[in-house]
Design brief:
globular; 11 strands; alpha/beta; D-Maltodextrin-Binding Protein, domain 2
Length: about 425
């Protein structure tokens, strides 16, 4: 699936030293990985070349980390297999690979909501009980379990944050980020009254008909005090809180709080709109921090934004838990190497280097408390709070069907083609049927 204040324009130059130090530390840690004793019970003790199937890495940092591994393991080299850009297409490709029991993929980068399906179908191995998961965020660990058993190791986590223009809010006399939807709308009205705010839209998230719509709908429901699914996994979208949330989204589109163009926004569309200076507020993942702060001319808001918790109906809202887990394919070769590579990528030093290079949310709790990292990434305390209150999507074996049902129900409502009450009643019945299977 990340909080901000004043941008230090020397950030890009100064982070080279800590990044280099991290790489050196990684190299020294790799030897320990290669000496790990094989665990035959975990699904094989063979070693050799492996592949890592994951979404496209736009930063180039993943290849650097793989290169570091390969330099230390010349007989156990890793090749990255880039999956399609769309999460839905990534899932289809991974499913097709598993259904034919192909050994083309060794390590799988799984969205947190895919773990249950892959585990239930025995497409991934259990993680050995001897694996050390201490120091990992509890919410991230839970996302990697199926029926109480660990089937993956959390690599990256994600919590939604509210990015906002500090320059515009300051000019409007506003000193704190909004905690409620009403406060956000009031702030936008004050900004719009400014000469520099005349052509700026208020708020956007991810509202195109894809998984992002599921995330944003769920966050709205949670931020109104409800849940899409309760803790027992039962759908509760017919509750008053869900109706209040969806009604607010519809009204926000109708009154201009959310621009009409945002109904087709995915992550990158919203990021670009925010970086182009056309939004006051944006619901986004932490990766935007680094990109929106670039001083190479690609962002008009570098040094002019900060982040806060998502707003809600009556107070701070709640994020949907995002992220990626790493699993060993049941059909892959050289599984001992695959397990060691996962240990390497999810270790503290690798995650530190990844944070330094990409501002991706780590799963190691120690990194959130690191003073040097907090200075460089002021959003870390906000992100940790977001993750602590984040709600995971259901661990449904047929999650793709659940997601599609939510998308099909909510998209027509925000488009104005049907009303919230009718859609939510039908969605409740549909979700009950899907999760009862």
């Amino acid at each position: 699936m990340n909080s901000h204040r004043k941008r230090d324009h020397g950030y890009g130059a100064r982070r080279v030293l800590p990044a280099a130090a991290a790489v050196l530390a990684l190299a020294s840690a790799l030897a320990a990985c290669s000496n790990a004793s094989p665990d035959p019970a975990a699904g094989g003790d063979d070693r050799g070349a492996i592949t890592f199937a994951t979404g496209k890495d736009t930063s180039g940092n993943l290849q650097k980390q793989v290169d570091t591994w390969n330099a230390a393991h010349p007989n156990e080299k890793v090749t990255i297999v880039e999956l399609p850009a769309s999460a839905d297409d990534q899932l289809k490709q991974l499913q097709q690979n598993a259904q034919v029991k192909s050994d083309a993929y060794s390590v799988l980068g799984l969205d947190v909501v895919w773990t249950a399906q892959f585990a239930a179908n025995r497409w991934i191995d259990e993680i050995p009980a001897s694996t050390d998961t201490s120091g990992l965020l509890t919410s991230a660990i839970e996302s990697a379990k199926y029926r109480g058993t660990l089937y993956a190791v959390p690599w990256q986590t994600n919590g939604g944050l509210l990015f906002y223009r500090t320059d515009l809010l300051t000019a409007a006399g506003i000193t704190t980020a909004p905690a409620t939807w009403a406060q956000m709308q009031d702030a936008c009205a004050k900004v719009k009254a400014l000469p520099q705010g005349k052509d700026v839209s208020c708020y956007a998230g991810q509202f195109d008909k894809y998984e992002g719509l599921v995330v944003n709908f769920a966050e709205a429901v949670q931020s109104a005090g409800g849940r899409v699914f309760d803790e027992q996994g039962n759908p509760t979208v017919d509750a008053p809180q869900a109706k209040a949330a969806l009604t607010w989204l519809v009204s926000a589109f109708n009154d201009g709080t959310i621009p009409k163009a945002a109904i087709t926004y995915k992550e990158e569309d919203g990021r670009k709109a925010f970086q182009d200076g056309t939004l006051v507020f944006l619901r986004q993942w932490p990766y935007v921090w680094d990109l929106a702060n670039k001083t190479d001319g690609s962002s008009k808001v570098a040094g002019k934004f900060a982040v806060a918790a998502l707003p809600g109906l009556n107070g701070p809202g709640s994020s949907t838990l995002g992220g990626l887990n790493l699993a060993v394919s049941s059909f892959g070769k050289n599984k001992a190497t695959a397990r060691d590579f996962i240990t390497y990528l999810t270790g503290e030093e690798a995650q530190r280097a990844n944070l330094l290079a990409t501002s991706t949310a780590p799963t190691r709790t120690s990194l959130y408390a690191d003073a040097a990292l907090q200075k460089q990434f002021p959003y870390l305390p906000y992100l940790q709070k977001s993750l602590e209150s984040a709600v995971a999507r259901p661990k449904a074996v047929h999650y793709g069907d659940v997601s599609a049902a939510i998308q099909n129900a909510i998209a027509p409502v925000i488009a104005g083609d049907t009303d919230a009450a009718t859609a939510l009643t039908a969605l409740q019945a549909n979700l009950k049927q899907l999760t009862a299977q």
